[in-house]
Each structure stands twice: as structure tokens, then as C-alpha cells.
Design a protein that fits this description.
The structure is a single chain. It is built from 2 helices and 14 strands, in the order ββββαββββββββββα. By secondary structure, it is mainly β. A hairpin with a 6-residue loop joins strand 1 (about 1-5) and strand 2. The protein is about 5% helix and about 40% strand. About 35% of the residues are buried. The protein has a single domain, classed as Sandwich (Jelly Rolls).
Length: about 180
């Protein structure tokens, strides 16, 4: 597993080696020894899978507030997504900025995302499954988000959403939180 820093402090991209033969392949998705050696969290409280049937589904921009702020390990296991992060950490030099990555079953890439980063994605293919590991359990009262189309953040999504939940459409802007 190759771990490299991304643009935001604390965000890392992970590239795993596909080991395969006539049966298919295996990808290591997490290794406590490798994560600890890189100074990353290696303990996960919860894992979840999201499924999106249609291309153009937009989910985001989500995070949990303290004391349930969470580190996320994010991987696309079926299909492909344009995965987007927004730095919402007060005092961060990249506060209010976004960066995006393509995650797909094909490229096997993953993201390690620290607490204080809002996350969302846009499906580039139908039939997308995303695997998340989180350092904190889900807490409904601490679940929050910012608008996917916040004009001050100005995320350049790859297309207009074909599917968007009412909740995601009504989050406040970053400045309105």
C-alpha cells in the first residue's frame, strides 16, 4: 500500500496493489501496521457501504460535529465516483477550499480523510458501491453538512445532479453554519 499526502493537511491518498490470477484479484484495503507506520489512525469504530443505482447521483457534503468528529477511510468498490472534500477546519490555511479525486473499482484508490473535512461524491457510473470506515460511531444529532452548491466554495462538479436527497439540497452554506 502506497500512502501519499494530498493537498489538504491530514488528507492522504492510498494506492493498493491488485494481486490477481485466473480467479480474480485481492486488494488490501487497510493494514494497521502500515497505517500506524505512516502516523495514521489504524482503529475503526464502524464500517458502512453506500449504494447508488444511477449515474449522476450526488451525495454530500457530509461530516460529523464534535465530539463525534470522524476520520474516514473511503474507497469505491464498484463503479466510479468523483470524490470531493471541503476543508471546514477553522484556522486551516485551506479553509473553505475543495479538492477532488477519482475513486473507482478499476484504479483501487482510497482516501484517508481527517475530522473537519466535509465529504461528498458524484457517481460517474451507475451501480456504485462505496466502502467507508469511520473512527467514530454515527451520531444522528452530530450529523451535519454544507450545501453541495455553496457559491463561496464553488465546487466544479462534473455534472448537474440527477439524484439529490432533499436533505443534501437544504444544508446551509459554509458561512451560514
Amino acid at each position: 500500500m502506497d500512502i501519499k499526502p494530498a493537498g489538504f493537511q491530514g488528507v492522504h491518498t492510498l494506492t493498493s496493489v491488485k494481486r490477481g490470477d485466473e480467479r480474480g484479484y485481492l486488494i488490501r484495503t487497510q493494514c494497521s501496521e502500515t497505517f500506524a507506520g505512516a502516523g495514521l489512525n489504524d482503529r475503526w469504530a464502524q464500517s458502512s457501504i453506500t449504494y447508488s443505482a444511477l449515474r449522476g447521483t450526488l451525495r454530500g457534503m457530509h461530516f460529523q460535529t464534535e465530539p463525534f468528529g470522524e476520520i474516514k477511510l473511503i474507497r469505491c468498490v464498484t463503479g466510479a465516483v468523483w470524490d470531493c472534500l471541503v476543508d471546514i477546519r477553522p484556522g486551516s490555511p485551506t479553509y473553505g477550499q475543495w479538492e477532488a479525486f477519482e475513486l473507482s473499482e478499476e484504479n483501487g484508490a482510497a482516501l484517508y480523510v481527517p475530522a473537519g473535512i466535509a465529504h461528498g461524491f458524484y457517481t460517474l457510473t451507475p451501480e456504485v458501491r462505496m466502502l467507508y470506515s469511520m473512527s467514530a460511531p454515527y451520531s444522528a444529532p452530530h450529523a451535519s453538512g454544507i450545501r453541495w452548491d455553496d457559491p463561496d466554495v464553488a465546487i466544479a462538479w462534473p455534472g448537474a445532479p440527477a439524484v439529490l436527497s432533499e436533505r443534501d439540497a437544504t444544508w446551509p452554506t459554509l458561512s451560514g453554519r
